[in-house]
Amino acid sequence: MLTEANSLPRPKFGSMLHSDPNISSSAKLSTANDDDYSTRNSSASAASPAFYDHSRMSGDGSPMTMSPWNQTSPFYKSPWSNSSSTFEETLPQSGLIGSLVREEGHIYSLAAAGDLLYTGSDSKNIRVWKNLKEFSGFKSNSGLVKAIVISGVKIFTGHQDGKIRVWKVSPKNLTVHKRAGTLPTLKDIFKSSIKPSNYVEVRRRRSALWIKHSDAISCMSLNEDQGLLYTASWDRTFKVWRISDSKCLESVNAHDDAVNSVVTCSEGLVFTGSADGTVKLWRRELQGKGTKHLFMQALLKQECAVTALAISSSDAVVYCGSSDGLVNFWERDKQLSHGGDLKGHKQAILCLAAAGNLVFSGSADKTICVWRRDRMVHTCLSVLTGHTGPVKCLAVEKDRESTAGDKGAPVDQKWIVYSGSLDKSVKVWSVCEYAPPNIPQQQQHQYQEEAAFVGNFPVWDPSQFEQCYSPGRTSQSRKY
After folding, report:
1. Is the distance from CB of 144 to CB of 108 less than 8 angstroms?
2. CB 75 within 8 A of CB 87
3. Which string of b and e fits 379-415 if b means at least 16 CB within 10 Å?
4. Separation of alpha carbons 303 and 277, rounded Å
5. Eight-state DSSP code of residue 188
6. CA distance 290 to 100
7. What is the 3-state secondary structure (H, E, C) of 242-295?
8. CA 372 to chain centre
9. Which pTM does this prediction carry?
């Protein structure tokens, strides 16, 4: 049963709420966590405390498993709520449109397609939203939904138990989703299990078929031009699947620890980020009827866990978020030279998304930084606040209501940004690509791109940067 705070249709994206972290329930949260997740206005510290595990070993579960956000929501009177509002005064160009709250679990994954939004949580449910209202939903028995991707009529979901489920929308009833299969298929499992050579060691004294993930799925990425699906896992591998027949083409032993993120781009390039602190570049090459991914180079080696990756819409820039709260980036047109890093968060980066000239970073500090790239320079346009828990996932879609400016002026491109949090809510934001920075002057130094340049090339001074970890502070796990 859907109960709305305001029984109004979805407001136009020009009418929105200011981002405001001062939600009434925040005062009820345990003060024991004030140092880690303090409610604050749009600001960040110049320091970057992090989550480094000196043992360099992965834990048994996600760092979000022990989330402090299992609190009673301010919306407890209704299992569903939907908030939106308008203001009569002049509104900012970026702000909150509305919130979606479901009292059933923390939000771990998002995927947007047109006017539909898919959300996954630790309740095993996948919810479908349309115009800020419940549209549909379906349930998987594979545990926490850690990743969702959409390819045409197929929806792929990655789960804590290492399974990848495939769903299809019923052509007769768009609200009905039926499971169409699992990766790998039962047929492929049976055929592979006959040959002993298809078994690989996944843990000490334990073997499994190479076509199956042996630990949680952490991330998925589509290469729609080639019809390929990439899945990354805590089992330290990424696998390549052909979407047309659900066949596993390749399994790559990519890292020494959990693979937290995988992204693909043009020219057959694949980037992976891991809890071992590295970002690696791979190139796909065709070999007969199959495919082979060759290791090209390591873009980053650090003590901090790599938690998220994203590629700009033009494939020009690769972004990497880490547990130290920094976003590093590399520029492809300069042979993937290190372009700098973006400092805007106090705690670990948990997710990244890129659209147009913008990149969005979500953090355990409960905020989302909006960065705009202009050639080699990144500017923090705004900090979106309002979540009362870590921001775990992001999705971005074009705002179809964007309007063209005057002659000679750029299109007033706006983006709809969805943010999922461990506070069990999804927030919907409108962000204008050409909005002026909305950061107070006294706080500008806290949101910055750090690099020293000689000519057109960055020169790095180690003294400019904070340590990747704080010796007195460790995380429960480096898996994300």
Report:
1. yes
2. no
3. bbbbbbbbbbbbbbbbbbbebeeeeeeeeeeeebbbb
4. 5
5. H
6. 43
7. ECCCCEEEEEEECCCCCEEEEEECHHHEEEEEECCCEEEEEEEEEECCEEEEEE
8. 18
9. 0.76
Q: What angle do CA 241, 242, 248 make, to 5 degrees?
A: 40
Q: What is the DSSP string of 107-175?
A: EEEEEEETTEEEEEETTSEEEEEETTEEEEEEE-SS-SEEEEEEETTEEEEEETTS-EEEEEE-SS-TT
Structure tokens at 458: 């960055």
State residue 124's pLDDT score.
86
3-state secondary structure of 330: strand
Count of beta carbons in the 10 Å neighbourhood of residue 179? 15
Rounded Cα gap, residues 391 and 417, in angstroms:
12
Q: For 446, phi and psi rounded to 5 degrees?
A: -85, -15
What tokens does 293 get? Answer: 């991914």
Q: Over the stretch 27-56, which tens digit does the pLDDT of each residue have?
A: 333 333 434 433 333 333 333 333 334 443
Task: Output the DSSP codes for 70-86.
Answer: -S--TTTTSSEEEEE--
| Paired tokens of 118 | 């898919």
Instruction: List Cβ neighbours of 196 (8 Å cut-off, separation of 6 or more).
Output: none
Taking 70 as the pLDDT cut, the residues of the chain under it are 1-93, 402-411, 439-478
Cα–Cα distance measured from residue 471 to residue 474, given in angstroms and rounded to the nearest whole number:
7
Structural element, H or E, at residue 222: strand 217-223
Are residues 297 and 280 in contact, defined by beta-carbon separation less than 8 angstroms?
yes
C-alpha to C-alpha distance for 107 and 66, rounded to whole angstroms: 14
Residue with tokens 């399994």: 251
Which amino acid is located at 153 in the chain? V
Which two structure tokens, joined as six digits, stand for 443?
Answer: 């706080």
Report the candidate in 242, 6, 2 with the shortest Cα–Cα distance to residue 128. 2
On average, the pLDDT of the chain sits at: 78
Q: What is the model's pLDDT at position 437?
A: 81
Preceding amide of 184 cis, omega within 30: yes
Kindly tell me the sign of the dihedral angle through the C-alpha atoms of 215, 67, 94, 42: negative
CA–CA distance, 170 with 79 (Å, rounded to integer): 27
Give the number of other Cβ atoms within 10 Å of residue 217's Cβ: 29
Predicted confidence at residue 356, as pLDDT, reads 92
- Which tokens is 358 given? 């913008």
In this prediction, residue 206 carries a pLDDT of 87
How many angstroms separate the CA atoms of 430 and 411, rounded? 15
* One-letter amino acid of 281: L
Length of the chain: 480
Spatial separation of the C-alpha atoms in residues 31 and 23, rounded to whole Å: 16
